[in-house]
């Protein structure tokens, strides 16, 4: 027997008798080779996820992490094509989608966008089965770029008692001051403040809000009835405007004085009587 290459051998033999001959080939194992069972088949219980998006994050900023496919033996699988999926649950119970990109090498880039501060639950699955350590609980902090509702405030005569009256010609005014999460006044505009004014008859009054571009906002409303007016000043979520929070000193109950009513005014005196 002669070796032709690593997998081919030549065999020669000389028959000594006529008739059919039986040829038996045997081999001797000289080396053990480990053959992984299901080497390229991922096992959800062994697959892992890691990265900053599972450790913490900031409101309105994309959070990223890596998913790694592993087989039953815990070995990383060097190819892609697996059905990883997931979802994030925010503090209000809303679902946030996770975008997952296949890197082709057994790893997957996952990205989600948190719109609210607070604890988020990140669920990552292989098909319908959770991967190792899923779900993950991730704290999301307040935005460093937008105004912070709990620190922003409003002040001015339009929020003070008995300063305005129901027949004044000029509107009641006050100012909103935008403050960031660290307590610093903002120097630019663009935040989504909103104001609601309800008079004693439960009617909502028209409100004008002017962004001054320097972190302050001028608010005007025209009172028409004497009595207590309910004023709500809120900051809307820039990505989900239907979600909002009251600012620091909102709501406010504002007393409006009764103004002069011409129909109830009288005039008297000799100058209004017939002369002699």
UniProtKB/TrEMBL annotation:
Filamin repeats lie at residues 1-41, 39-140, 144-256. Gene3D superfamilies: Immunoglobulins. GO terms for molecular function: actin filament binding. Keywords: Repeat. Pfam families: Filamin. One of its GO terms (biological process) is actin cytoskeleton organization. Signal peptide: none annotated. SMART domains: IG_FLMN (SM00557). PANTHER family: FILAMIN-A, JITTERBUG, ISOFORM N. This is Uncharacterized protein. It comes from Arcella intermedia.
């Amino acid at each position: 027997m002669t070796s032709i290459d690593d997998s081919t051998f030549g065999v020669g033999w000389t028959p000594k008798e006529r008739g059919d001959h039986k040829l038996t080939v045997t081999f001797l194992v000289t080396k053990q080779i480990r053959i992984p069972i299901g080497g390229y088949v991922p096992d959800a219980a062994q697959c892992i996820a890691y990265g900053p998006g599972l450790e913490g994050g900031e409101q309105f900023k994309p959070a990223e992490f890596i998913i790694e496919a592993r087989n039953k033996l815990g070995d990383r699988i060097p190819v892609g094509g697996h059905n990883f999926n997931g979802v994030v649950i925010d503090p209000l119970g809303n679902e946030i989608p996770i975008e997952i990109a296949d890197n082709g090498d057994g790893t997957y880039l996952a990205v989600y966008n948190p719109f609210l501060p607070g604890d988020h639950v990140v669920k990552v699955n292989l098909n319908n089965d959770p991967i190792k350590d899923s779900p993950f609980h991730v704290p999301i902090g307040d935005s460093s770029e937008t105004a912070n509702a709990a620190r922003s405030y409003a002040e001015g005569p339009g929020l003070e008692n008995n300063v305005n009256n129901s027949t004044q010609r000029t509107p009641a005014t006050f100012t909103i001051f935008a403050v960031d999460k660290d307590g610093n006044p903002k120097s630019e505009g663009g935040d989504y403040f909103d104001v609601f004014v309800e008079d004693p008859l439960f009617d909502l009054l028209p409100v004008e809000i002017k962004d001054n571009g320097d972190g302050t906002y001028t608010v005007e409303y025209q009172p028409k009835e004497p009595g207590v007016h309910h004023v709500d000043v809120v900051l809307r979520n820039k990505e989900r405007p239907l979600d909002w929070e009251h600012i620091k000193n909102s709501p406010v109950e504002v007393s409006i004085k009764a103004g002069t009513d011409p129909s109830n005014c009288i005039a008297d005196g000799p100058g209004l009587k017939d002369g002699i």
